[in-house]
Design a protein that fits this description.
The protein has four helices and seven strands; from the N terminus they run ββββαβββααα. It is α+β, with helices and mostly antiparallel strands and 180 residues long. It has a single domain, classed as Nucleoside Triphosphate Pyrophosphohydrolase (Alpha-Beta Complex), CATH 3.90.79. The chain has a four-stranded mixed beta sheet. Strands 3-2-7 form a three-stranded antiparallel beta sheet.
């Protein structure tokens, strides 16, 4: 602990995750309706997923994979939007959120489990911001991504390159356990 004290803590280790704000030429973002069992309903979310495809998978590779698997898209331009520590009081789960532009449609992916039931919705950024602020979009990752891209646009912020360091990328679980 800071100051040299010792304290016992339980920590949930996580592979880490990525999410994507995929924005088309009309300024709309691709979102998915996904059933979330703990809440017992479908949530409107950004495409996202775990860094669980193997120990050598890089975050950008995972983001490209998730974008293709969940919404059948690829992108020519990628930037880091924000990095998030999702609940640092009890888990090392961290997430890198990307902005993907220059989109093109891929052949439909084969979907399984909860992904088989997903529906894609294209949402204008202003509408997405309003849906976050009204409480309709409640997924923390999605809210952060939507508000971050709106803020970056409003300020004319230059986003980070995909090679930018990610100091909080989780590694303990990936280094100790086999991936799924």
């Amino acid at each position: 602990m800071p100051g040299g004290r010792i304290a016992e803590r339980e920590v949930v280790e996580h592979y880490g995750a990525v999410a994507v704000v995929a924005r088309d030429e009309q300024g709309r973002i691709a979102m998915v309706h996904q059933y979330r069992h703990p809440l017992g309903r479908r949530l409107l979310e950004l495409p996202a997923g775990l860094l669980d495809a193997g120990p050598d998978e890089k975050p950008l590779q995972a983001a490209r994979r998730e974008l293709a698997e969940e919404v059948d898209l690829a992108a020519d331009r990628w930037q880091v939007l924000v990095d998030l520590a999702l609940s640092p009081g009890f888990t090392d789960e961290a997430l890198r959120l990307y902005l993907a532009e220059g989109l093109h449609v891929l052949d439909s992916a084969e979907r399984h489990d909860e992904e088989a039931d997903m529906a894609v919705e294209w949402v204008a950024l202003e509408d997405a911001v309003n849906r976050v602020l009204s409480g309709e979009i409640v997924n923390a990752t999605s809210a952060a991504g939507i508000l971050a891209v709106a803020a970056a646009d409003a300020r004319g912020t230059t986003l980070r390159q995909v090679t930018a360091p990610w100091p909080d990328e989780p590694s303990a679980l990936r280094n100790r356990r086999p991936t799924r």
